[in-house]
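1st attempt posting a full record on here, be nice pls
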Amino acid sequence: MAKRLREAGFDEQDIQIAGPHENKRNLVVRYHGSGARKPVLFIGHLDVVEARREDWTVDPFIFLEKDDYFYGRGTEDMKSGDALLVTSFIRLKKEGYVPDRDLILALTADEKAAPRTEWNWLLTTHRDWIEAEYCINLDGGEFEKDQGRQLLAGLQASEKVYVDYQFESLNAGGHSSVPSPDNAIYHLTGALNRLQTFSFPVNMGDITRKYFLHAAALSSGQTAANMRAVAKEPANPRPCCNCRKCPISIRCFTPRVWRRC
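the predicted structure (as tokens):
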């Protein structure tokens, strides 16, 4: 990518390939504008999930265009977005466009890895490279077409997160020479078994509901019907224990577990 940018006329000093690890580097590019306003930062990640050739019907390490689809490791998440950004920067340079601010492109190597040391390295070591008024992340939305017809431009309004739960089993204990069925290990096992069969309720927010309603208009048949049915779900209920401090809404596994919320 740096080679293509250089060939398009970008100065060497405006192209940075750097990072804390030799085998994982960031690409940061600056497109100079008039400086009338603060820069805008465009970001994306370069790394992709693991791919094994035996799991693919084509070679995942060779880019292939077939039947109007792109095949290859990371073509959707998110080398396609990276290619769009780099190509757009090259096009702007060739057209001689002068924006009213600098445009910064930062493609990092650690979206799939944890901790995200490459981004942290940029923030702590070369923050001036990426300092901007605001940021646009191409991994936070999507564009869909059908045989050339534009269908939608999706914008991400939130980020999925996970929740940790801690199960604590208390018991009077005893001696291993006289095992008792009333012990903490069995109690905890019972809680885990109940967790295995428990299904968390689906909570539908306004944004998600509107997404399904509009997506249903772009679909047909049973898929469209399913989307409309999901969108009819009632608004998020209050927690079953009426605990206003609880950040989630789920039914209790057992009273003794819920008392710790």
